[in-house]
From TrEMBL:
Pfam families: Ribosomal_L17. One of its GO terms (cellular component) is mitochondrial large ribosomal subunit. It comes from Phaedon cochleariae (Mustard beetle). Residues 189-232 have a biased composition (Basic and acidic residues). Residues 189-246 are annotated as: Disordered. GO terms for molecular function: structural constituent of ribosome. This is Large ribosomal subunit protein bL17m. Belongs to the bacterial ribosomal protein bL17 family.
Length: 246
């Protein structure tokens, strides 16, 4: 049997299969790792949308795809498929959901049966990346925006107009706040200039007064010197030695 015929024995998955197993933090070893994956697959089949760490979500997705693919291909009368469903689904009532609900939903699908979406992580918070793993066709609202089919619905049109009006009002408030800040700044600058001019004028007045006082002091000193000189001359003239010299 050649390679082409061998590949037909196993249904091909529509998701990327990791060549190596992911390492999980579990003290129980490989058995505990499988138990964690079984719990995740069971929760996904039951709730159809779960949020968990990205590595575990990506690893569980491959096992879920294989389980649904074999259920579609072989049905509920295949012994190996029933044993696999009994192993991976820890809640046995979900086996009925797998074959009676999910198989009719996905039997005409040409794409993957599951979808994984990276979820935002809170900051500050855990360092692990989060993801949302879901089955396609679930009854929950879509996590991805669909602007092609829902854009013209009345509630979306009203929401768009309300968003535009809200943004316009916010822009007006921001513009008014900026204008008020500019006016306040201009008034502050004018007051600063006026106070600066007053201070300059006062400094000039003080300088002029000091210069006038200095000049007056000089004049007074000169007058006093002249008076002293005149007095000394008069004393010399009145003395007898002055008469002899004459």
């Amino acid at each position: 049997m050649n390679q082409a015929e061998v590949t037909k024995l196993v249904s091909q998955l529509r998701v990327k299969v990791n060549p190596r197993l992911r390492k999980f933090r579990n003290p129980g070893g490989p058995e505990e790792r499988l138990n964690k994956l079984r719990k995740t697959v069971t929760a996904l089949i039951k709730h159809e949308r779960i949020e968990l760490n990205y590595p575990r979500a990506d690893e569980s997705r491959m096992y879920t795809e294989r389980l649904i693919s074999d259920a579609i291909r072989y049905g509920d009368c295949h012994k190996t498929t029933m044993e696999m469903a009994d192993y991976w689904l820890m809640e046995k009532q979900l086996i009925h959901k797998l074959f009676k609900v999910l198989v009719p939903r996905f039997e005409n699908y040409n794409i993957a049966y599951t979808r994984i979406i990276k979820a935002p992580r809170p900051y500050p918070g855990e360092k692990h990346f989060k993801a949302v793993l879901e089955l396609r066709g679930n009854p929950y609202p879509s996590l991805l925006p669909d602007n092609h089919t829902n854009r013209n619905l009345i509630h979306n049109v009203l929401l768009d107009e309300a968003r535009k009006a809200y943004r316009a009002e916010k822009y007006k408030e921001i513009a008014a706040r900026i204008d008020a800040d500019m006016k306040t700044k201009d008034l502050t600058d004018e007051k600063c200039n006026e106070s600066k001019n007053k201070i300059d004028a006062q400094e000039k007045i003080v300088t002029l007064e000091e210069s006038d006082n200095h000049q007056n002091r000089k004049k007074n000193d000169q007058i006093i010197d002249d008076l002293k000189r005149d007095n000394s001359n008069e004393e010399n003239q009145d003395s007898p030695e002055g008469d002899k010299t004459k």
